[in-house]
Fold this sequence. Notes:
Elements: E1 2-7, E2 12-19, E3 23-31, H1 33-37, H2 44-66, E4 75-81, H3 85-102, E5 106-110, H4 111-122, E6 151-156, E7 161-166, E8 172-176, H5 183-193, H6 200-208, H7 232-248, H8 254-280, E9 284-288, H9 295-307, E10 311-313, H10 317-320, H11 325-336
Parallel strand pairs: 1-4, 4-5, 6-9, 9-10
Antiparallel strand pairs: 1-2, 2-3, 6-7, 7-8
Amino acid sequence: MLILAIETSCDETAAAVIKDGVEILSNVINSQVDIHQKFGGVVPEVASRHHIENIKSVVSKALAQANIKLSDIDAIAVTNTPGLVGALLVGVSYAKGLSFGLGVPLIPVNHIHAHICALFLAHPKLCEPFMPRGELVADTAKREKQAPPAFLCLVASGGHSHIIHVKDFTDFEVIARTRDDAAGEAYDKIARILGLGYPGGPLVSKCAENGDENFLELPRVKMADSFDYSFSGVKTSVINYVHTCRQKGEELRVADICASFQRAVNEALCQHLIDAATDLKVDTIALAGGVAANQKLRELAEKFANDNNMKFYCPSAELCTDNAAMVGCSGYFNMQAGTTADMSLNAIATI
């Protein structure tokens, strides 16, 4: 089965061709980072307009790289939630047109679930508990359902910080989420106050390489009744420290501030994930989403997993960022579960 996947939830226009769920034939990404840098963040209207300009050429490149024709496609998968509603509408509208014109199924995809499915692309062995002999089978009647791969996945990005219990390819239970800022959002705000630019995550991480992570002792919030996250406290502490230094005319040790902030956020992300896994008696943890490309976070999560006798998985950095390959993988499993949409499919900003 060949699935053409489309992703336009934020500021990347992406298209990919996926074969039988986990084989990537192409994965094309057109980023708008350079366009939005001068604004210090993504401007929704600008993002939507550039998606309109880019989507046709991105889809054409994906088909060309896969060496197939549009008529070879068996289904169209598209991200329809969550994200910037205008940006989502571009992808959804284009996908609906292709689906109608080709007479093939239209598959809606949840962006957060797609990030989790990037793990199946990077680590096919995670599919094995579902399939006979570890092989993907298009005919659902031939699937021998076994015990689900009970693993916990931290999906961390600019808009989301979720701990999700993955019970099946399409069975995801949210265990925890952020009460305020997402991790990536906090990175962007700290980068802005320090004058580093946008996007904040890679810039703060790069600056932190030369810093002392013990320079500032910053708060880590732990909820008494849940594994939820809160990053407003650590963000506010850093902002207050920076303002105080500037008011007193003191040297601003930017690298040390970045290193301390990164350590606080990463430790909170990993500790909550480990605590949730321990509570649920799950022996496998994983990372996904844009923030999962942070090397320090990957290293710390693996250390926490090893210290607690747990297995650890993470996609490649390319599959952590927004891309259409993960949408195609998620779309494949959605279709196997009977989830398709008609021409009334709409974009949904929040879930």
